[in-house]
């Protein structure tokens, strides 16, 4: 169980570190920022898509382990189920967070930054602590 928890913790912290690297590179102008600023149609489509993805992923990720089939896999397979579904739940929050962070610097649209911050804050509801991991694999 400890090995699974450590892997989930790595999957929790690596995207946060990636976002911090993107922020540092963007703030120090290491990569060009505002590349997509002039193209309003592309920016609108990207923003609409990321808003929908963010709005859908947050409640789904937070309630994922309460679905019957998933909960039964967590109880029956324990470590294997926790590794599989824990990774899926973390990726549902971290992938859009990293994409929103990157899109913020490519478009310089604050809405992408806000979406990334919201996803970052939601991640603290699914931190793979020892107590949470044990509670999620019990009936």
Record keyword descriptors for this entry.
139 residues, mainly alpha, 6 helices
Shape: elongated
Number of extended strands: 0
Strand content is under 5%
What order do the SSEs take from the amino end to the carboxyl end, as H and E?
HHHHHH
Main sheet specs: none
Can you give the mean pLDDT? Answer: 93
Question: Explain this structure to me?
Answer:
There is one protein chain. The protein is mainly alpha-helical. It has six helices and no strands. The protein has helices at 2-27, 40-63, 68-77, 79-107, 110-123, 130-136. The mean pLDDT is 93.
Brief description of this entry?
79% of the residues lie in helices and 0% in strands. The protein has 139 residues and is mainly α.
Task: Lay out the secondary structure.
Layout: H1 2-27, H2 40-63, H3 68-77, H4 79-107, H5 110-123, H6 130-136
Helix pairs in contact: 1-4, 2-4, 2-5, 3-4, 4-5
